[in-house]
Amino acid sequence: MTKLWGGIEAGGTKFVCAAGTGPNDIRAEQRFPTTTPTETIGRAIDYFRQQQAEHGKLAAVGIASFGPIDPNPASPKFGTITTTPKPGWANTDFAGAVGRALGVPVGFDTDVNAAALGEWRWGAGQGLANLIYFTIGTGIGGGGLLNGKLMHGLIHPEMGHMRLPHDLTADPYRGRCPYHGDCFEGLACGPAISERWKQAADTLPDGHPAWVLEAHYLALAMTNVICTLSPERIILGGGVMSHPTLLAMVQREVRELLAGYVQSPAILNNIDKYIVAPGLGNQSGVLGAFALAEQAFSAAAR
Amino acid sequence: MTKLWGGIEAGGTKFVCAAGTGPNDIRAEQRFPTTTPTETIGRAIDYFRQQQAEHGKLAAVGIASFGPIDPNPASPKFGTITTTPKPGWANTDFAGAVGRALGVPVGFDTDVNAAALGEWRWGAGQGLANLIYFTIGTGIGGGGLLNGKLMHGLIHPEMGHMRLPHDLTADPYRGRCPYHGDCFEGLACGPAISERWKQAADTLPDGHPAWVLEAHYLALAMTNVICTLSPERIILGGGVMSHPTLLAMVQREVRELLAGYVQSPAILNNIDKYIVAPGLGNQSGVLGAFALAEQAFSAAAR
After folding, report:
1. Before B157, cis peptide (omega within 30)?
2. Could you read off the pLDDT of B201-256 as tens digits, one per residue?
3. Which one of A6, A248, B67, B264 has the fewest CB atoms closer than 10 angstroms to its CB?
């Protein structure tokens, strides 16, 4: 029988909640601002109760969360947002609160791991055991599946904070990461583009040197990800990627940077099918939350 | 019953062959130079035949190989060295030749994946599902296990070729990678140290600025690996790491570069147990080959 999933895309500025069964059936998506944990998680719970009253019992809920988080089901702090600087949210037992209120299994992971799982389940990464998803937006994050499972390890990846070559002569901008200055996120997130060029990123025209520089940093980062992880595909999502020519510029420069060293047809001949846009558009997050719910349901049923 | 394994550590300049059952039982290790595939693989087969005559049948052989290779058992080119510039070795069916001659299952992977597996089985990474091993020597390579399995993906990692920040004012050396110039390996392999300082790396004294710079590049690379993969431990092997103070310098600088962003006790309080020397010393490779043999035996028995 088709199961009804609940999904929360929990961002630092807004929450998106939805219920549904998959990409062709997303019901009554609701958005509200992220305020205090009690209020915001309370609104999400109210939303799901209302959905249950209208459509019947949810089988499970998935949460695609801002972080850092504890996504390890074996840990006593599983389901919590851990050390975020966002006021009030540190050590919030997010998954526990939702699970107790609704009495359903809860899947919980980073926003980017969830998006990767959504793309693996229904989007541009179907059937791939080694898949990386990046969001390039207000912040930069990366996650994915390796050897068929979501990436956790010590905690979870923080791919936005890798260090990249930064030619201060060509680009004297010092970067805006409060921890690392000119790490990947510090150089290439949307607000960094706006601050560097003193103009909102989405108003910079095609052909502006901003996009050449942005493609350069993105290509350096993707080159490092390819050398480090050897993924079968990379999906680039997030608001910055909506600039129309950016993806093709990144694809071209990754191939140049690898310089023929990684001898795979995927890179040498089909880079346009190797580094791709999300198959689920801007719904990777919510559908990723559904996919987390589905995983949690299966785990609870075992 | 204890099984007898054969192991080949196949490097670009020399082969090391051994037979044995584990770290406390390595018999009659033999070394010879890497010449043509026919001659070199032939000598390895002769060695194993002689071991079998003396000690009884080998249960399986493992090969820890220089690359790039095809380590995917489902691929028609499994077991081959693929596109190496080393004369005569491109498209060599290495595992197939050994398996046909000896009539045993053959495990085949990169030298660094094998070393990681050896350390996971008997050394400094026991019980860790997410473990990275680097060799810092004539070249630089990294591999490991993620989610409990060896890293393959599209092909296999080439971690030595990630790009790092390179301050040309502080270090005008242009790097020696024939593909990428100043990638990680181009800046930080043993021959790069010797070329930059015009002195053999192993003769540079403690306190020489060469080691500060080397630690800096190693720390940048390990920081990127931590942000990208979130490993539970990193093992640093290879000849360059034998410089006595280098490991501690890398540990210290990794913590500085992460700047408190990754909030794990492993990094904040126990970095000396997080980035470590190999537990198997310079036998990670040969014992890794035994561990590959063991995996191949188990797979064949299923």
Report:
1. no
2. 999 999 999 999 999 999 999 999 999 999 999 999 999 999 999 999 999 999 99
3. A248
When pLDDT is averaged across residues A289-296 and rounded to a whole number, the result is: 98
Interface predicted TM-score of the whole assembly (ipTM), two decimals: 0.96
CATH number 3.40.50.150 given to B5-110+282-301: no
Closest Cβ opposite residue A154 in set B151, B162, B266:
B266
Residue of B nearest to A263 (CA): B83
Contact A158/B261, CB-based, under 8 Å?
Answer: yes
CATH number of A124-277: 3.30.420.40
Whether B228 sits inside 8 A of A223 (CB atoms) is no
pLDDT tens figures, B244-293: 999 999 999 999 999 988 889 999 999 999 999 999 999 999 999 999 99
* Ranges for all domains in chain A classified under CATH 3.30.420.40: 5-110+282-301, 124-277
Residue B7 vs residues A237, B91, B97, B106, B268: alpha-carbon distances, Å:
45, 21, 14, 10, 38
Q: What is the pTM of this model?
A: 0.97
User: Do A146 and A249 touch, CB atoms closer than 8 A?
Assistant: no
